[in-house]
Design a protein that fits this description.
This protein has two helices and 20 strands. The protein has a single domain, classed as Sandwich (Jelly Rolls). A hairpin with a 5-residue loop joins strand 16 and strand 17. The strands form four sheets. The protein has a seven-stranded mixed beta sheet, covered by helices on one side. Strands 2-3-9-4-7-10 form a six-stranded antiparallel beta sheet, with no helix packed on it. It is mainly beta and about 300 residues long.
């Protein structure tokens, strides 16, 4: 009979590991030791520990830090995203312009103001702008201001002929244009800004994408919760924009929630069928915790 390995994360604490280290150890054991039928996985990165890599964007004034995908070692696990990273353009600087065939791109401006070079146009962008770049369109950033421009760059793989409904041209909006709302099944203490969905979407600010089923922000009241849930055929990435709390990142061998303490700048990838949720650790007098999330189709679905 095939032996089944069981791991209790609480027992590892006795060896003196911190909670953040438990998250990595738990994933490593799942991936290398557990029964091959285990499909739920997650990966964790943090802005404070991700290193710069030289890539298509890189200049003397612009650099890129990969969380997942290109430039990172996660490509064997993540199937739907080709890249998810942090682009910084220094004051007075400019990135290279790039073009990615076979991908759609979503960009989210975290800080600063600057100019988006899109095809033959230069378009002003500022904090909390989000935009959709169709496949094969050349783009880049310049920064004429005195504050660094920081952008989350997300690329998603396309299969030939899968995105015939995509409209040409840039699609852009700002989170200030999107109302917060409570969604059924996620609990009353979490509000959502629905930023972008597929071209068939009727609820998102931008109905623009092919592989991306939902780009959204979650805002958590003090002690707020995004009820743990699963997606059977989609991958998902969470970026902690503000605050702290416990991310639910799967289940223990006895069926309990596996939680990882998370801080601003932490990023999580979740594979399909992983139990996902969040418990805010912010106090009433503190600013609400917020998460930028993107959910996208698993290839072949």
């Amino acid at each position: 009979m095939k032996q089944k390995y069981r791991v209790n994360p609480e027992s590892i604490k006795s060896f003196g590991f911190r909670r953040s280290e438990l998250c990595f150890i738990f994933l490593l054991i799942l991936y290398l030791v557990l029964d091959k039928n285990v499909s739920a996985q997650y990966l964790k990165r943090s802005l404070s520990s991700v290193h710069e890599v030289h890539n298509e964007f890189t200049t003397t004034d612009a650099y890129y830090k990969p969380f997942f995908g290109a430039g990172d070692d996660s490509s064997s696990i993540i199937r739907g995203a080709s890249r998810y990273g942090y682009l910084i353009v220094e004051p007075g600087g400019r990135s290279n312009t790039v073009k990615f065939d076979g991908e759609e791109q979503v960009l989210f401006v975290l800080e600063g103001t600057g100019m988006l070079s899109y095809g033959n146009e230069d378009i002003p962008v500022s904090k909390n702008d989000f935009m959709y770049i169709p496949e094969g369109t050349r783009f880049g950033f310049s920064n004429p201001r005195e504050q660094s421009l920081t952008v989350i760059v997300m690329g998603f793989k396309l299969t030939p002929g899968s995105c015939n409904r995509i409209k040409p041209g840039l699609r852009i909006a700002n989170t200030d244009e999107v109302k917060f709302q409570i969604l059924s099944g996620h609990g009353p203490t979490t509000q959502f800004q629905l930023l972008m969905g597929t071209t068939e979407s009727t609820r998102d600010r931008l109905a623009a994408a092919c592989q991306i089923t939902s780009l959204f922000i979650m805002d958590f009241a003090s002690g707020g919760t995004n009820n743990p849930h699963k997606h059977s055929d989609e991958e998902e990435i969470y970026l902690i924009l503000k605050g702290s709390g416990d991310i639910v990142a799967g289940e223990t061998a006895d069926g309990k929630e596996f939680r990882c303490h998370s801080e601003e700048g932490d990023v999580y990838f979740f594979s399909p069928k992983t139990l996902i949720g969040f418990y805010s650790g912010n106090h009433p007098e503190e600013e609400h915790a917020q998460i930028l999330a993107v959910r996208f189709k698993y290839p072949g679905q």
